[in-house]
Amino acid sequence: MRSRTDRRKVVEALNGYLFISPWLIIFIIFSLISLGYAVYLSFTEYNLLRPPRWWGLEGYQRVLEDELFLAKALPNTFKYVLIVVPIQTFLSLVLAFAMDQNLRFQRFFRTIFYLPSVTSSVVISLIFIWIFAPQGIFNQITGLTVNWLDDPRTAFYVIMGMNIFTTSGTLMLIFLAGLQDIPLAVYEAAEIDGANGIQKFFYITIPMLRPVIFFVVTVGVIGCFQVFDQIYVMTAGGPLDSTTTITYLIYKWAFRDTRIQMGQASALAVILTLIILAVTLLQRKVIEGSGSGAER
Amino acid sequence: MAVTTQTQTRVYEQTVFFDRLRKYLFFAMLAFWAVLSVAPLYFTLVFSFKPVADIYTPPIWAPIPFTLENYQTILGTFQLFPRWVWNSVFISVIITIFRVLFCAMAGYAFARIEFPLKNFWFNLLLISMMMPGVVTLIPSFLIIGPGLIRGGIDLGMFKLPTGFGLIDNPWGVILPGMADAFGVFMMTQFYKSFPKELEEAAMMDGSGRWGTFFRIVLPISQTQLITLALLTFQGAWNNFMWPLLVLRSPEQFTLPIGLQWFRGEYYTLYSVILAGSIFNTLPILIIFFVFQQYFVRSIAATGSKEG
Amino acid sequence: MNRLIKLLLVLTVLALGLSACGQTTTQQTQPTPQTVRETVTVRETVVVPAEKVTVRLSGWASSPAETALLESLLYKFSVENPDILVKYEPITGDYKQVLLTSIASGTEPDIFYVDIFWWLELAANDALLPLDDLMATSGVSRDDFIPALIDAFTYKGKTYGIPKDFNTLGMFYNKALFDKAGLAYPTDDWTWDDLRAAAEKLTDLSDPNRPVYGFCTPPDPGRFPVFVFQNGGMVMKDDYSDTMLDNEAAVKAAEFYTSFRTAQIGALPSDLGEGWQGTLFGKGQCAMVYEGGWLIPYLRDQFPNTQYGVVMPPAGPGGEGNLIFTVAWGISANTKNPDAAWKVVNFLTSEASQKTVLESGFALPSRKSLQNSDYLKNNPNSAAIFNGSFFGAHPFFWGTVGSDVNDQMAKALERIFKENQPVPDAMKQAADSIRKALR
């Protein structure tokens, strides 16, 4: 009956909003308003000490003409994303799959693999500075004498490696949680049909994990585009700007430079947001097709 | 007949051999990664027990010479150390409880319920994660503190405050942390990949959305909720920049902020920092190890609990 | 749910247990000055009057021992001024970011550290309170302070900060290595030629596992300018409107500075596996380094067995030269209690307070009157650093694009060292980039 369906729809809609209301209220107050303010600032000249002064697209123009942005921050950031996201996604997926196999000492192994992610990025950056110091542990063990963080050719790769290392635990955890929902019965049926480990992985696990993979890749892309903490602690954008990323440049203009340029920094932040949005939409088409999650 | 069986046996043996080889290779890779994973923390532990002067000297595998001076420095220098631990615990636990609940609710709604503007809010959620935090610090700080508009919005009779006035207050850290785009996104994706049958059965039996959620969906998604709780707790525990801005008096500091006090203006005594890192990391490790046992296959997936 | 509660209990017990450990152990590793301890243990009963004014004071977090010293001074102040409550709010992370965010949101403290390097933005944008009137009411004159320091915090004729302490660069030399090479210890009369000759004799590369270099030349914009000054040049013009890094004086200074490494009598800290030359000096792998007074407590803590002395940096063809690093106490322009805030600042920079700080070895006083104090007489190393401020010293300040100037100097040196770029080209490139930033 039409009235019953309509009533049900209204109840559904009401329920929907009630469910999301706690999150929505906090989101609007703390996220949306801040976002809007940041967008507003991108059209102003603002040195934090006097009120912002509107200057339209001047900030954007300056960003797009800035040498540091064009020659270093932009290519560095893209390089970072293109290398780190595939590696960290694949690595954590393999680890999670391995941890799902009911091996001996499973709990012990899971804790070990989670260890890299446990410490805060600031603390692990300090630890890695100490490990990769020219006479630090890494060189002592491998017998090399490379000055990892001081050499423009190697510094960025150290940061990449460190990030892959530290996110592997968190992403493994997320994948593991997703794997728990794949019924064992499906695996068993495949085994009866003669599928081996690799085949099970590619034909069962990956398709059934599509929503979670989409999540991990999206979050990975967003996180990598915004990589900041490690660079802030370890290299401050150097040596010779080899580790300067877009987010570090934003920080540099907003707080580090003697001449404070918050407006320009906000413009760059908006540009970064648009870049990430574009990449995410692209990536969504690739992974998901037209939907936004495999429904069963 | 006998020849074929011999060939078959040889082929079978070869397959078994390769299978075993694959298994051993697999174990070797896992063992290698395990060693790599432990290494940084292991060395941190070793050198935190070495005197300050020996920060780089071998042996690197064992703390020789051994000393407790770094830990004594951290515990003894500031009388506020236990207060900092308590602040961190309080803030992290409250944030975790609220965030898990709110994100699960919102995630479930996005995954299962149809309501107007659903896609709009979800896309806004995704976009909110894309703006770097550096530029949203100031407006967020204004909102949690003195207000976007100084003095409030003048409505004649009274002034409407545009800020919460929670600076130097742990709730100033907790409030924005109670919901989080990342958490909602994750729960949405998790719930999307859940089989619908159990819920549909419950709804058919007359239980409404709320009943279904609290009595069926939440228990089923135990593993995913634990995951979110662990990640949330860890994030809240290690959070540095926001508490640094909001908390001003040393009594209100959280542990990471207090530990940074040992970083000198001109030089850093690394041994002390390493000892501090152990303090900061230990609670999370313990919690993780304990809560791991809840990582089980959900009832929906197997029909019975398995660990 | 039960397990969650159990876990919370375990955590709480752990925390309390750790705190119990902490309270029974006294601080043993940091040699805290005796004077500090004595002041704090004297507790007097103070009658608190009804009207109490609260003043918030902030700064970056230095070492725990220095924090204790500051707190003891604040305690002394509260005893003498029971009507003023000073709330100490240290910032243990990114100081500039937190301070700027606070000012932008109107929540900044009443009193805060102002660093010479970036203070101008604050003064030019009216974030700081001019102090001249307040100084007059307390009978404090600009002449009480070392001219180079008080001038550094003057803008358009007004004083915006009272320098609390300062540092210059001294030449630290390793006595053991000098003895081994049979060289006489350096004196304040040394010149560039003496420096070079000594570096040659002190370098010992016979042990490949432990090379010893005569001089350390890091690509550091906080060291290199000294050589520019000593060659009669400047980094920036007097009004900071243009750079002079591509002038001949600066280029020649860069050539001299980088020649040590080329001739293998000098090294970068990274060449020897360290991030900072201070560590190398303590280890005895660099016989001479230019460092500030902060090296003294570091060596005392980390390398107590190294025997060393300090003199002023050797003069160049253009005379003496040095850099001044200094921090001042500034008062916010929006403070609600300027008089109370001034009382605090005045107390902290009074002769008595500065004497206490000086004698604890942490920093050098900014008052002229302490120039002939006993402490400096008994500590020639600190005296050398102190005296550096009177001989060709310029503040570590390059105007509105200071950070760009620093970055470009560092990059130019790095290019010379690591990419073998010819010195004049490197300096020209740096100067051009600075000019672009000035536009």
Explain the layout of strands and helices.
The complex is a heterotrimer of chains A (296), B (307) and C (439).
Chain A: H1 2-41, E1 44-45, E2 53-54, H2 58-65, H3 67-99, H4 106-118, H5 121-131, H6 137-142, H7 155-179, H8 184-192, H9 197-208, H10 210-225, H11 229-234, H12 246-256, H13 262-288
Antiparallel strand pairs in A: 1-2
Helix pairs in contact in A: 1-13, 2-13, 3-7, 3-10, 3-12, 4-7, 10-13, 12-13
Chain B: H1 2-48, H2 69-77, H3 81-112, H4 118-128, H5 133-144, E1 153-154, E2 159-160, H6 170-177, H7 181-192, H8 197-204, H9 209-220, H10 222-238, H11 241-246, H12 255-260, H13 270-291, H14 299-302
Chain C: H1 2-24, H2 34-41, E1 53-58, H3 64-80, E2 84-88, H4 95-104, E3 111-115, H5 119-124, H6 132-137, H7 147-152, E4 154-155, E5 158-159, E6 162-167, E7 169-174, H8 175-181, H9 192-202, E8 213-216, H10 224-230, H11 248-262, E9 266-267, H12 277-283, E10 286-292, H13 295-302, E11 308-311, E12 322-331, H14 338-348, H15 351-359, H16 374-378, H17 380-387, E13 393-395, H18 402-419, H19 423-438
Parallel strand pairs in C: 1-2, 1-3, 8-9, 8-10, 12-13
Antiparallel strand pairs in C: 3-12, 4-5, 6-12, 7-10, 7-11
In words, what does this structure look like?
The complex is a heterotrimer of chains A (296), B (307) and C (439). Helices cover 73% and strands 1% of the residues of chain A. Chain A contains 13 helices and two strands; from the N terminus they run αββαααααααααααα. In chain A, strands 1-2 form a two-stranded antiparallel sheet. In chain A, 50% of the residues are buried. Mean pLDDT of chain A is 85; it is low at 290-296. In chain B, α3 packs parallel to α6, α3 packs across α7 (181-192) and α3 (81-112) crosses α10 (222-238). Chain B has helices spanning 2-48, 69-77, 81-112, 118-128, 133-144, 170-177, 181-192, 197-204, 209-220, 222-238, 241-246, 255-260, 270-291, 299-302, and strands at residues 153-154, 159-160. The model of chain B is unreliable at 299-307 (pLDDT under 50). Chain B is mainly alpha-helical and 307 residues long. A two-stranded antiparallel ribbon of chain B has the order 1-2. Chain B contains 14 helices and two strands; from the N terminus they run αααααββααααααααα. Chain B is flat. With 439 residues, chain C is an alpha/beta fold. Chain C contains 19 helices and 13 strands. In chain C, β1, α3 and β2 form a beta-alpha-beta unit. In chain C, α10 crosses α11. The radius of gyration of chain C is 24 Å and the shape is globular. Chains in contact: A-B, A-C, B-C. Chains A and B meet through α1, α4, α5, α6 and α7 of A and α1, α3, α4, α5 and α7 of B.
